[in-house]
Design a protein that fits this description.
The structure is a single chain. The protein contains 20 helices and 2 strands. A two-stranded antiparallel sheet has the order 1-2. It has 6 domains: 65 residues, no CATH class; 64 residues, no CATH class; 63 residues, no CATH class; 61 residues, no CATH class; 62 residues, no CATH class; 62 residues, no CATH class. The two termini are 39 Å apart. By secondary structure, the protein is mostly helical.
């Protein structure tokens, strides 16, 4: 029986750089874009693909010298920006660009500030990415915001200094000494801490931000640490006593008091604003619906005093909230208007009562806070506290279910409705929601479970990689390339990862190299496979 004839293998086309440039120009003229690895077939050249051209340039195949790439050829011959061989960034140059941006716009740049006018082709997002990942000559583990905070004193809203209770109390003492009153969340800037406000302090105290444990208020802290009476525990006011204060004010100043008249002489801690609010809203035993004008006469006309509100319970408010949610599909807030189940009540009145702890309600800062605690309504910034042990349990469940460990892009957490891995990662990075600052989810998993942290991989050295190359050659008789798979002498590494690090400047390497170039430099010849 005769053997079948074997069809001779067709000789493959031999490339040349001038010829490739002709194909490149034709592609650009036809499509308006420069070709890349994924541009498909080379038009007009039978059975050729741009990926084949790139392989020939990289590996020295089909008549080409090797040690290059399609992207590098375009950068050298057509001035096309090569993302794999970007120039090294210098901190001094970045500061010059940032100063120019601020001079031009009045604000410091952020990662969302778009292109850099003084550096065509560069963007602030790329600069921020270089700081975070550690490429283009910049060490990893920082950000553009952190860099500007360090070198230009720009306040980094995602990395604010941590608070301590002792520090806040010192600021409160200074405020009291200076003004005669204790601060509230509406007291404006903290004079002794430029850039801080009492509102920000209150948010941090309640939400457990900036190193604080959370679930308390500024008023509660001052009541516990400085014996400052809370509004819900203040003694009742009487009209005769307030009229005495008003007449004394008139004798002293020549005018009747107004809400902006400031502290009341002879009544420590009291201000005319507080009296006005109590008269209007019915606080501290007053009927409500009145103004300071009622203090000008001995027998005021109280034609339409606001009726005293009946006591409430948290369970009653929650029942109304449940009914609102069932009816509208949303939880109520202070602007949700009247409560159909309670004629005469409004959600704004409930919110104010919760804030002040009036009408026998538990003081929880706001209606939103009550719903966040009792109905698990997740609304920024009132999110529940987290614990590292809880996060690790969710991660282990994710691993059992998916076969891989979660990262910030892993989406919702089934075991915690409303929670996502991105929100957990943010809380870990910022040290919020009761968590210590651990930098990121990846680092927590690396510390607790020994999971490889892709955001903090060990650095490479040329000597170490060269040793792995030689070991591979001794074992296989061939020099490795990017597609050679796992590095046997470093089981967690791949030749692809090393090639990417060499090309992009990751993990301690300068950008613009490759495995082929490293072999060429070490062996004194261009590798061909």
């Amino acid at each position: 029986m005769s053997r079948p004839k074997v069809k001779p293998k067709a000789l493959r086309h031999v490339f040349s750089v001038p010829e490739i440039l002709e194909w490149v120009d034709a592609h650009h003229a036809r499509t308006g874009a420069w070709p890349g690895l994924d541009s498909g077939p080379v038009t007009g050249i039978l059975a050729e693909k741009w990926r084949n051209v790139d392989s020939g340039l990289r590996l020295g195949l089909r008549g080409l010298p090797g040690g290059s790439s399609l992207a590098q050829l375009l950068a050298e011959q057509r001035n096309v920006r090569n993302s794999g061989g970007l120039p090294v960034l210098r901190r001094k140059q970045i500061l010059i660009w940032a100063d120019a941006h601020r001079k031009r716009t009045g604000a410091w740049p952020t990662s969302e500030s778009g292109p850099i006018a003084e550096a065509p082709g560069e963007t602030w997002r790329a600069v921020d990415g270089a700081f975070r990942v550690g490429v283009r000559g910049i060490a990893a583990g920082s950000s553009l915001a952190q860099f500007l905070a360090l070198r230009r004193g720009r306040r980094n809203l995602r990395d604010l200094p941590r608070f301590t209770v002792r520090q806040i109390l010192a600021w409160a003492d200074a405020h009291h000494k200076r003004t005669g009153t204790w601060p509230t969340t509406t007291s404006g800037p903290v004079v002794d801490a430029p850039g801080e406000t009492w509102s920000a302090v209150g948010v941090a105290l309640y939400n457990g931000r900036r190193g604080l444990p959370g679930r308390t208020t500024l008023a509660q802290m001052l009541a516990a640490r400085r014996s400052v009476p809370m509004s819900s525990h203040l003694p009742p006011l009487s009209l005769p006593k307030m009229r005495i204060w008003a007449r004394a004010h008139k004798r002293r100043t020549g005018n009747w008091p107004t809400p902006t008249a400031g502290p009341i002489s002879g009544a420590p801690g009291m201000t005319w604003r507080k009296v006005y609010n109590s008269l209007r809203e019915g606080y501290r035993g007053l009927p409500g619906g009145q103004t300071l004008a009622v203090l000008r006469t001995e027998r005021p006309t109280e034609s339409a005093p606001r009726p005293r509100r009946s006591p409430l319970t948290d369970e009653q408010v929650l029942a109304w909230a449940d009914a609102h949610h069932q009816r509208t599909g949303r939880w109520p807030h202070s602007r949700s208007g009247p409560i159909p189940e309670a004629p005469g009540e409004t959600w704004r009145a409930i919110d104010r009562a919760l804030h002040a702890g009036r009408r026998e309600l538990t003081q929880t800062n706001s209606l939103v806070c009550l719903l966040a605690e009792r109905r698990d309504w997740r609304t920024h910034p009132y999110t529940p506290q987290l614990r590292s042990r809880q996060i690790l349990a969710w991660a282990a469940a994710h691993h059992r279910r998916e076969g891989s460990w979660p990262n910030q892009r892993s989406g919702p957490i089934p075991e915690a409705p409303g929670e996502t891995w991105r929100s957990v990662d943010d809380a870990l990075r910022l040290g919020t929601r009761g968590l210590p600052r651990r930098v990121c989810l990846a680092r927590l998993l690396a510390e607790e479970y020994g999971i490889r942290n892709r955001t903090n991989l060990p650095r490479f050295t040329h000597a170490r990689v060269w040793a792995w190359l030689q070991s591979h050659f001794r074992r296989t008789g061939k020099w490795p390339h990017a597609a050679s798979g796992q590095v046997i002498d470093a089981p967690a590494e791949t030749w692809k990862a090393i090639d990417v690090a060499l090309r992009h400047g990751y993990r301690g390497f300068a950008a613009g190299q490759s495995l082929g170039r490293l072999l060429a430099a070490r062996r004194g010849a261009k590798p061909r496979g």
